[in-house]
Design a protein that fits this description.
Layout (H helix, E strand, L loop, with lengths): L1 H19 L4 E4 L2 E4 L1 E3 L2 E8 L22 E3 L29 E7 L7 E7 L17 H5 L3 E5 L4 H5 L3 H6 L8 H16 L5 E11 L1 H9 L11 E5 L12 H14 L5 H6 L2 H8 L20 H6 L8 E6 L16 H12 L3 H7 L4 H25 L5 E6 L22 H4 L13 H20 L20 E4 L4 E3 L4 H13 L1
Parallel strand pairs: 2-5, 7-8, 7-9, 9-10, 10-11, 11-12, 12-13
Antiparallel strand pairs: 1-2, 3-4, 4-6, 6-8, 13-14
Helix pairs in contact: 11-12, 12-16
Length: about 500
């Protein structure tokens, strides 16, 4: 009897241990996958969310994922999408690049419990031409430790993701082309809606977020009919589809695509589809090749983005968005020379002609700061402001201004003078240690704790405010309503509307 009792106890203990162990094997669309526990977080990498867009599926909407037999290992990142090496700060952990790249990654709490958890889907930046969900700065483990199921997703880039062409339009059942990368993002969000509960996530509490091109993408997803109902909150860091690049009409994008194909030696769609991916990539990198981006195609983007936001057609979800203090250097508008009043006035005359005096009134402050701000505004800051300003009329909106410069590098390069483009990502995602370039200080870690806490609160509750944090008013509250994120964070009144309204008037003349 003692032997039998001991056996029962051992079996019971084994069952309890198994029940308490984190679930690293889950069933998703396509079959079963097995991840692993990494530093107390369940990580699932390289999960396919659509069929590989290769062969006849090149420049097609993403198709359903192909089922597999048995248990698929999800312990390594999938391929990154085809891209040229454009930015030195990008670090990839993917095995290589390929057209077969539609994979996503999930980080989830080891023991999520019975309550459904909020979800973060992060869309990488890189000018819609480069980037990957494997980059350490986007790692979702820190979010998972805060009770959030975090994902990064891949999407097609450059000409593979955004080529518009008359023959592609003609063969399409919806008579449009381009925006395949946006459709990939929407397909990933649809996958999340169907499958995230298997990881403990709540499909009704999804926040989409992104920086630069990822922020452009977030603003686009908010006006895409096919993405309606797939997310509940949005975060945008430095950029929107309302910016200078905009979303040209389909006819213009088709003309550009046809000219590119002809110039590259691919006279027909059949020739384009038959060409090796590497040959297309190299053609895209030649001098004079166009940049491929978001298109007002009448289907994915069904009308001009400005019209959608002006008419209140966007998803009316809470938005947290902002930009950094030095998105561009002053030299970008001053031919890489030091700012002086004379050079700044010459730049205003060059850019605005008869409106130079009006521009001077809008930027009537310290010339170094004014030139820096104008350079950033002309690139992406104005578009981000416009997005925030219009969306605040429809839903709760919070705006930030990130001003913490990166510290000195470990090899002795001095600290930056301003918060450069993309500098905030590691701070917001609590991933400073994943970036081995900089000698992070206690102040940097304090800034990261603050920014990360605001993001976590917003992802969980749709409001960044929380205990032990400076109060962050909505942008619609008069006075101090923008959160300056730095060593000493706090709400302030930037008094910058005049300069953005100047750009509004300039945009109306175009």
């Amino acid at each position: 009897m003692k032997t039998a009792s001991a056996g029962i106890l051992l079996a019971t203990a084994a069952s309890l241990a198994q029940a308490a162990a984190p679930a690293t094997t889950v069933k998703v669309e396509g079959g079963r996958i097995e991840g692993r526990v990494e530093e107390g977080v369940r990580a699932f990498k390289g999960i396919p969310f659509a069929a590989p867009p290769v062969g006849a599926l090149r420049w097609q909407a993403p198709q359903p994922v192909r089922p597999w037999q048995g248990v698929r290992q999800a312990t390594a990142f999938g391929n990154r999408c085809m891209q040229l090496p454009l930015y030195a700060d990008m670090v990839f952990r993917s095995p290589g690049q390929s057209e077969d790249c539609l994979y996503l990654n999930v980080w989830a709490p080891a023991n999520p419990g019975a309550k459904k958890l909020p979800v973060l889907v992060y869309i990488y930046g890189g000018g819609l031409a480069t980037g990957d969900g494997s980059e350490p700065r986007y790692e979702g483990a820190a979010m998972a430790r805060q009770g959030i199921v975090a994902l990064t997703i891949n999407y097609r880039l450059g000409m593979f993701g955004f080529l518009a062409h008359p023959e592609l339009t003609a063969e399409s059942k919806y008579k449009a082309s381009g925006n395949y990368g946006l459709m990939d993002q929407a397909a990933a969000l649809a996958w999340v809606k169907k499958n995230i509960a298997a990881f403990g996530g709540d499909p009704d509490q999804v926040t989409i977020a992104g920086e630069s091109a990822g922020s452009y993408s977030v603003s686009a997803q908010m006006i895409m009919p096919m993405s309606k109902g797939l997310f509940a909150r949005a975060i945008g860091e430095s950029g929107s589809v309302l910016g200078s690049r905009g979303a040209p009409p389909l006819a213009e994008a088709e003309k550009q695509g046809a000219a590119f194909a002809q110039g590259a030696g691919f006279a027909t769609l059949a020739a384009l589809r038959a060409a090796p991916a590497e040959a297309l990539l190299q053609a895209q990198g030649k001098p004079g090749a166009p940049r491929f981006g978001i298109v007002t195609d009448g289907h994915v983007i069904d009308r001009a983005p400005l019209d959608s936001y002006t008419q209140g057609r966007q998803a009316k979800v809470p938005l947290l968005a902002g930009w950094n203090s030095q998105e561009q250097h002053a030299g970008a508008i001053l031919d890489n020379r030091e700012p002086t009043p004379e050079r700044f006035q010459a730049a205003l005359q060059k850019f605005y002609g008869a409106d130079a005096a009006e521009a001077a009134r809008a930027y009537d402050y310290d010339v170094a700061e004014a030139a820096r701000d104008l350079a950033g505004d002309r690139w992406l800051v104005y578009g981000t402001w416009k997005w925030i300003d219009l969306h605040a009329r429809a839903a709760p909106t919070w705006r930030y201004y990130y001003s913490r410069p990166r510290p000195a590098t470990i090899d002795g390069q001095p600290a930056a003078t301003g918060a450069a483009h993309a500098a905030e990502i590691e701070y917001a995602m609590a991933n400073l240690d994943g970036n081995k370039v900089y000698a992070w200080t206690d102040d940097d870690r304090a800034v990261s704790r603050t920014m990360h806490a605001y993001f976590v609160n917003f992802i969980k509750f749709g409001d960044p405010n929380g205990t032990s944090l400076p109060s962050w008013p909505k942008i619609t509250q008069p006075g101090a309503n923008v959160m300056r994120l730095d060593v000493q964070s706090g709400a302030y009144d930037p008094r910058d509307r005049a300069r953005f309204e100047f750009h509004d008037r300039q945009a109306a003349q175009q």
